[in-house]
Specification:
two-stranded antiparallel sheet
Length: 174
């Protein structure tokens, strides 16, 4: 009964709040510090726990997946949690119908991750984070490919052909 109260609060906390992003000036270096990142990560972790547990049949999947897609488009830390959630949702019995409704957005978000390229002067930490992001996206794709209704979708077939296979084998042809 409390799920109807908790879910909107959790969903609201997953939205990136631009008021919590500050520009930090460290002499010649400037970067943005996101003071809302920990809250977003905690909210996505709550969503992950809820969907992996006994509450999953009670959660409406379409609004849930909307937030997951939003997380797939966020910073790498949030993206990693969202990729795990997507894999968990793919294993649910009610998932195919809800995922087919959101498949174009899911595919677009995963494509963006798989098509990201590092700068030539990227440091080791950036390379590791990028590799982790690619591995998470490919893991999510693998779990999506296990859902029969999704595999038969022309959107997913095109995504697999143009993005996934090309990301794995064509990226040196730039």
């Amino acid at each position: 009964p409390q799920l109807g109260i908790l879910l909107p609060l959790i969903y609201r906390a997953t939205v990136k709040d631009l008021d919590l992003i500050r520009k930090v000036d460290l002499g010649p270096f400037k970067y943005e510090k996101d003071f809302g990142l920990d809250l977003r990560k905690a909210s996505f972790d709550c969503m992950r726990t809820m969907i992996a547990g006994t509450l999953s049949p009670l959660i409406p999947l379409t609004p849930f997946l909307e937030r997951v897609v939003q997380g797939l488009e966020d910073v790498p830390d949030v993206r990693a949690i969202s990729q795990l959630i997507l894999g968990t949702v793919a294993g649910l019995p009610a998932a195919p119908a809800a995922m087919l409704l959101m498949l174009d957005k899911i595919v677009a978000a995963l494509s963006t991750t798989l098509n990201e390229r590092l700068k030539d002067n990227a440091v080791r930490q950036e390379k590791e984070r990028h590799d982790d992001s690619l591995k998470g996206a490919l893991r999510a794709v693998q779990l999506l490919a296990a859902v029969p209704d999704i595999v038969q979708s022309p959107i997913f077939a095109s995504f697999m052909e143009k993005t996934v296979r090309c990301s794995m084998f064509c990226f040196n042809k730039e």
